[in-house]
Amino acid sequence: MSNFHLAQVNVGRILAPLDSPRLADFVARLPEINAVADQAPGFVWRMVDDSGADATSLRPENDDMLLINCSVWESVEALRNFTYRSEHLKVLTRRREWFERLADFHHALWWVPAGHHPSVDEAMDRIALIRDVGEGPGAFTFRAPHPPPTESPGTFGHGHHDAPSPAEHTPAEHTPR
What per-residue confidence (pLDDT) applies to 1? Predict the structure, then answer.
């Protein structure tokens, strides 16, 4: 078992308020999809608001239309399987019904010491890192995954994985989404 787990964050700007008819199907599917995640092989943790059910009341950047999803997984493969080989895919394919198409990166993956649960600010910092300097060991996507750190969790965060400089964080060739 690894001393590191994979954190993921994705944000989306909803096209209407959560209590609107336009988002009714999305909101109705949340409990089911969260349960699929919670029971998925390799799932470790997911961010929830004070309700304990989901994170829909959390508002990154004080934007009433921006939703955040953040979770921790044992591996890239475990997250990939949940994302693309479970009931989650059915919801993912309908995302344009509920969310704006964002022009820039809206998700990031990064390694955290086992037992660490990222905060909203930490998660948003990883998206900012990818936007500012591109993919690298401190923030990446499925397209260019990085292996877990080789140092021990006790030294993690004191080296290049915590806040890579642009020289250490090589941008990937990509088209903004």
Answer: 60
